Amino acid sequence: MEMFELRYFLAAAKHENLQVASKEAHISAASISKAIARLESELGGLSLFEHQGRSIRLTEKGRWLKQRASQILALEASARAEIGTGGLLNVTIAGTEALLSSFGHQLTRQIKNHRREAIFQYIASKDEKETQSLILNGDANLGLSACAGPRDWVQKELGETVFRTYVGRTHPLYEKAKKKTVVPMKTLLQHGFVCASRPILGAMKPEQSVDGWRDDHFQRRIDYVVPSLLLIEEIVESGAALAYLPEHLVARLNVLPLSISGCPYSCKQTVKIMARNADESRWLLSILKGL
Asked: How much is the pTM?
């Protein structure tokens, strides 16, 4: 069982498509197919994939090998990094779009300062559950999350983010934000909001809406429900609606926070980096101590 065979197998297992896997691995689909056939032969003739028309699907044994292969390759990369033998290091980071856009570059920059040969891939997950699944299955080395992972995983806090209500330049409340005038909640609720269709950072408490707002006590008028973080930014920046957003997301936007009176509630979330196994990611975790 060769390392390159495991790499080709993992590419195929990840996409369940030989053509897509060949592009990622920079090798022909036929070569990946031959590597898989050799693995199947070495493992006693078992089938790692089943064919469904033009698609392939992992078998139960294939799913088992996928986890083991990712562990083996992660340990190999960790050993090379700790010994300092050089060579390319492929690091895959999973997380929601908001977390990747805010904290992903912070991570890669820190790693690049120590290992300039590192190559990074981001996987945008739809939620925290998918982030953890990507790590567990070996599709990602590291995950960014605003929720706690399994107790036996390695987890490190990166920082805390606070949610605030933001307004764009052409919005009627912009001048109040500019002058830092306090806006009563009753006045605020006369204006529409843009809201994400799912949590931006992580799972909220049951009493909170998906963006962290307490609509159970202060019912808003939601004019826009959108799935894209970029679209939320465009809408609030245009002044078409207000938005309740984590402060680290708006640094590059032309918006201002509003000071609001009459609301005792606030939303804060702690952002963490997590890895499945300390042995597999020891070199990464040592680099990230400075974060």
From this structure: 0.70
